[in-house]
């Protein structure tokens, strides 16, 4: 297990959130989970290929749902109903992004993702949506390539966004070409999931930090802090099961941050949400101002390995136990 600096834990306090005893598993699922595709036949077919539009929320969520269904056999001995599948972190963070409007067009540049337009639309201008694209496309297409999906590698095509199409791989062959290391490590994960999962999360992704320019200053700061803070949580090897990740969701910002939001004094946030946001932002500032650089500016711009660790850390930050508690 990697070493987690004690101050990283101190910043957010040492606490966890308890679930209500009478909660059913269905209460923990991300938004529109039941309505999302759960098998390939739920998608349209053209010329013998399954066509998936990852820029529509239920269709991208369906990729996660199929992935969890196909990997359930690896985790069935740990708990019923696949609740201990360590891939739950992926759809749950996607659901949080949807419910907080982080998949919508930032600053309402278009009506994509809003009730006034197409609520299910995922905007390519969204920094969160672009990060999440690689956290869905690469694990999903690597699973197809590994053979666990039961279809051939050329039977799935992802539709491109309306612009910046060259930033995204759309099928197994293009992802394998552009993200060779990530596809390889995810492929290994599906063969031996309990040995390679954390290496897998340290794979690849585009940061596309220029997209943060579309957001308010507090939201952009949170995005940058998120990308750094998650690196620390990756070192903890914390279990990313359904209940654990759902618990953490209670501490995430429940909406986009706007001008004037300053944790820990945001009135419509809970104490927990204020503490988590304050801790994540402070962790970023400490990382930037000390010689204990875990991630340098060069790494943030150049490394494809960093983001996978980043996403996981922030999602699980408040659930960590302090090493000195």
Tell me what you see in this structure.
The structure is a single chain. This protein is mostly helical and 325 residues long. It has one domain. 45% of the residues lie in helices and 3% in strands. The chain contains 13 helices and three strands; from the N terminus they run ααββαααβαααααααα. The protein has a three-stranded mixed β-sheet with strand order 1-2-3, with helices on one face. Helix 3 runs parallel beside helix 5, helix 4 runs parallel beside helix 10 and helix 7 packs antiparallel against helix 8. The radius of gyration is 19 Å and the shape is globular. This is Chromosome 6 open reading frame 58. It holds the Pfam family Leg1. It comes from Equus asinus. One of its GO terms (cellular component) is extracellular space. InterPro entries: Leg1 (IPR008499).
Features:
single chain; 325 residues; three-stranded mixed β-sheet; 45% helix; 3% strand; Leg1; Chromosome 6 open reading frame 58
Please give the largest β-sheet.
Answer: 3 strands, mixed
* Domains, number: 1
The strand count comes to 3
Query: What's the helix-strand series?
Result: HHEEHHHEHHHHHHHH
Low-confidence stretches: 6-22, 295-325
How confident is the prediction overall: mean pLDDT?
Answer: 82
What share of the residues lie within helices?
40-55%
Radius of gyration: 19 Å
The assigned structural class equals: mainly alpha
Distance between the amino and carboxyl termini: 18 Å
Beta-strand residue fraction: under 5%
In order across it, which strands form the biggest sheet? 1-2-3
In short, what is this structure?
One of its GO terms (cellular component) is extracellular space. With 325 residues, this protein is mainly alpha-helical.
